[in-house]
Amino acid sequence: MESAVVQVTLFGLLLVLASTLPNKDDWNIYSFHINSTVTSRYATTVITSRVANRMDDSKEIEFQVRIPKNAFISKFRMFIDGQVYDGVVKGKEKAQQQYTEAVSRGQSAGLVSSVGRTLEEFKTSVTVAAHKKVTFELTYEELLKRKLGKYELQIHARPMQPVKDFKVDVYINEKAGINFIEVKGGLSTKALANAITRTHADKQAWVYFYPTEDQQKTCDGCGEQGMNGDLVIVYDVNRDTSLGDIKTRIALIHILNDLAEDDHFGLITFDSSIFHWKRELVQANKKNLESAKTFARNIQDRGGETNLERIQSNVRRDIADKFPLYCLGFGHDVNFEFLEKMSLQNNGVARRIYEDSDANLQLKGFYDEVATPLLTDVTMIYNGGTNLTQTNFSQYYNGSEIVVAGQITDNDIETFTPQVVAISRDRRVTFSNTNATVEYTGTDFDSHIQRVWAYLTVKQLLEKELLFSGPEKENVKKEALELSLKYSFVTPLTSMVVTKPLGENTDVLHKPKEGGTTQAWPSPVGRRPSGRKAQRKRLQARPGSFSRKQHKRYQNKFIIY
Known about the structure:
By secondary structure, the chain is α+β, with helices and mostly antiparallel strands. Residues 1-20 form the signal peptide.
């Protein structure tokens, strides 16, 4: 296919955690592979575990993986005795019906999906005959997010036994060119140095991690139960750093020590009444900082308004789009959906802070993400484009990204011109480019771009569903469900039915909401899926400097970073 490419910025994190928890006296994991492919910030990860039952009778063999909350599972398969058992993505209501029917027959749960800080867990099991084998294969997808000027691809493997054929393969392909790549993490140690191979060539990079069975037992955190640790690939792409101005905004009182002396700040406490520490912004000198810290240490909870709808209404009225609202929820007993909705209503973001020993680091990390806005009131304009995803953004932060997807009108790349309009230091700025580069990249990349568009669209529809009510809410929910089913994404609106051999319970995987409790849905034996592949063509575009090229035909979709 051809693709028009235009660049603004990007940002990313992929977190891969995989584990199989066997009794090594009963079964043998003879092959364990994690294969991550990152193409233009869209990561597809395939985890494959091959297990043999070496006992003289049938055994239940378990497969368990943990994936990032932002990822969508898109495929799960089991290969048993020459047969392929595919997972089927269904609407959550249909899956719930199967669950209810199974419970009424007294069947027990076989799959659990749970939420930790950043992970969701997928677990299933299957009975394997004596001296037979099973292959588990899970695929999930995620649009990478750039944080603080870098991407991190974190892979955590814990097979619970040394594996003869243990491999981690990472391939990164970035059209903008890869600026740097590093390998870190608990598995990147001196003892394992010769197990890691890293290659970087302009736009591509490869990382291979092939530890021997002995190395899997001797590394830090490893032992007789084998590998237990993470491998972190850190990288960034080439970019133009000359655009935009930097301004500082004080986000959290917990990081007062990070303020520069030429910063100015203020503190306000509020409930049913408002109290100002100072009536005006003050300079972040030593005297004012010490006074502010004393004030912060003496802040106490005094009650206030408790009606959630009135709180949201009052906050929205008083902020009146003058600045974004950042909501922090501490611990698990907070109503996080309320905080998330209120922050979205006021052009901000919500973040859960976990009550662990590193809570201060979590706060500082969040502050670092939002402390340096480069642009505000950002509008992405694409003349010659239609069917666009979100194009208006309240903030563009240093080290972050803006992504827009849509369709090129009449497939005519000649009429397609991107433009960015925003506010920088109280002045209106415009970035535009009238040229575009179009190049043929083939059907594989065509399908890849199509899935990026679908992933991004579903994510934004789910945010709208949280904000809307009544018919509007139902409409966006319906649209998000249809796309989730079409692209086989396991989202909060869908579930995956995991089919098994005849006579075994069929598990149901669901994606819980943020802060949701652990649940397990069993169901009776399901149906084999019928594959559905979208045929639409897409172009990828990035704002930047372009030269025009002519081609015989143009595809009609694009993604803009």
